[in-house]
Amino acid sequence: MFLIILILQHNHIKCRIVSRPILLILVLLFAFPILGSTQGANVDSIKAVLATKEGKERLDLLNLLGTELREISQSEAFSYSMEADSLAEKIGDPSGQSRALENIGWIYYRRGQWRQSFEFSEKAYDIAIQNNDKLQAARLMNNMGALYYEQQDYQMAINQFKKGYDLATQVQDLSTRIRSLNNVALNFTQIDQLDSALLYARRSIKMNEEAGSPYLTSFAHRVIGDVYLAKGNYDSAQLLYENSLKMAREQNVKSFEAGVLHRLGNALLLDGKLKEAEELLLYSVEFCEKNVFLDELSKSHRHLTSLYEKQGDIQKAFFHQSRYLDLNNQLQNQTNRDRLALLQNMFQSNLKESELELLKAQNENQAYRLETSRRYIIFFAITAALIGVLVVRMYFLNKNVRMINSDLLAQQRRIEEQNLVLENQSVQLKEMNNTKNKLFSILGHDMRGPIAQVKSVVDMFLAGHLEKEEFEELLHVLSRDIDSVNFTLNNTLKWSMSQMEGFHVNPALFDLREVVDNALLLLQASFKEKKLAVFNHMEQKVEVYADQDLIDVVVRNILNNAAKFSNFEDSVTIFSERDPEWVYWCVQDQGLGMTEEQINLILSDSYSLTRSRQGTNKEKGSGLGLQLTKEFIRKSGGKISIESHPGHGTKIWVQLPRTESSLDSQAIRGQEEVNA
């Protein structure tokens, strides 16, 4: 540090050029040099002596290996930690078991399996609290804080990390204190409290002078780099990211290296250093693809899109934009599912804790009353043996005991009723969560991608990056995306309405042929695109008794599926038959077909929202169409059947009542089946 001051004093010109943030960074970099990594040598030496150790000594070495390797080689760390968990349980070492479970929970967190991470971390925390192990509890507070971070509940995450810091301070564990400070700083950057983030990161660096951990220092530098990037100090951010990247590579922490690469590339891009940014971001794409770091890979594609837009290379920008949208959709869907599963696990955990506290209080109250009754009985029994005059008194006491027991039984029944109410509420909540998950999956996956694609192309056209001819070439793709969004939105709205209370079916007599003709007109573009031949052999007028709006949705979904899964230049045949009570409407295609397992899943009584297969022209779908069709046909008093073989097309039969009497007789038969 003294050397820097002398150099700056000697060269006055450079002192004027260097900005204050850069000067601070240079001081930090010289004040906290990167230490040579001895981690590999330590791991090798531990492995060398592990084979000769047993019992407690082997357990400690296994936990040490799990901790050392969990950021470097997760498969090895997982194997050592699982062995440590089994050994700790075998020899009865709760502290060692808590440490093993902590490592397993963290490995699951790094893999993005948050539900498993929460379960193992929660179990480890319970063991640590039971054994008053504050150091272990401090480490686990960081695990729990990381899970709240993934829920985007940053304030709760900050609270957890601060609790971990306080516990680590009580036991004077420097490494856990530094880790907690870094995590607090990271969460402050997420809620735009940049000055607070900078304060905690600097505290971490200063405290790390004693620990000398390159990994923890690298983490702090990355956080400070995020702050300077957000403030627009791009040169300062680059210096910090470069130093952090160097530390990560020397420590061989590939996950951390991936996190720094796209940040440094973005800083170079924002600073106008396009060539350097392009080289680094292309390397980041190659590195992330090789190591399957999908989140960092999507961010690298996003930055490359912005870079090629600045360079005017529309083809490359469009390619990287498409890759970013695909990866982002995939990550968003997985994140939503995992986040909802994690929230449900945490809710169930809190519910169990509340039930246990309630039962504990009730059991203590019951035990107290029983103990009091027992003491009364013993006291008056001894008194009765000594003084026969008190026999009458004992009679009344026994009567009181019976009353108390009766009250206890009544309380027990009330407790059972309360437990039943809690169970019913839990089931209702699970059903609500399942419904919400289905809506999020449909709206998030099947609508975000096409809309984002349309917006991207329109924005590039409005900005002048696309010629009119190029735009017209993309119009058919945009039209197909908009049709997909419109079809999915209509299905979703119809399904949502059918799930609401007060949804009514309004049957009436109408012409099914007219509904089919209108649906064919609406889907004409889809049939023309694949050059499909449509043969409609229905009679000129086919009257059915049902809700016309529901049957319109049924017809459109079945015809749309026929077009979607047909090959180019195939044919689709439509015909109908009838008897005195029923109309049998059929659609037959020559497309992909279905397996018996797929047919059984679609026609099952339970509601099953499955992921839709892509069509023969890579058409996307929500998986809701056939489920909606099945539900609306049943609401209309009809039936649906499917005949299909893979590669040989599909034939779908829909049975609908011709008159009101046919509908009533079907309802009576359904009620008789329920009563039976």
Automatic annotation (TrEMBL):
Enzyme class, UniProt record, top EC level: transferase
Specify the domain of life of the species encoding this protein.
Bacteria
MF terms (GO), sorted A to Z: kinase activity
- The Histidine kinase domain extends over 442-660
Keyword Coiled coil on entry: yes
TM spans, by residue?
376-396
Q: Where are the TPR repeats?
A: 138-171, 218-251
Which sequence ranges form a coiled-coil region, renumbered to this chain?
A: 344-371, 405-435
Q: SUPFAM superfamilies this protein is in? A: ATPase domain of HSP90 chaperone/DNA topoisomerase II/histidine kinase, Homodimeric domain of signal transducing histidine kinase, TPR-like
Task: List UniProt keywords, sorted A-Z.
Answer: Coiled coil, Kinase, Membrane, Phosphoprotein, TPR repeat, Transferase, Transmembrane, Transmembrane helix
Q: Does the keyword Kinase apply?
A: yes
* Catalyzed reaction equations: ATP + protein L-histidine = ADP + protein N-phospho-L-histidine
Name of the protein this chain belongs to: histidine kinase
> Per the UniProt record, which EC number(s) apply here?
2.7.13.3
| Gene3D superfamilies for the chain | 1.10.287.130, Histidine kinase-like ATPase, C-terminal domain (3.30.565.10), Tetratricopeptide repeat domain (1.25.40.10)
What the entry lists under InterPro entries is as follows: HATPase_C_sf, HATPase_dom, His_kinase_dom, HisK_dim/P_dom, HisK_dim/P_sf, Sig_transdc_His_kin-like_C, TPR-like_helical_dom_sf, TPR_rpt
State the SMART domains in the record.
HATPase_c, HisKA, TPR
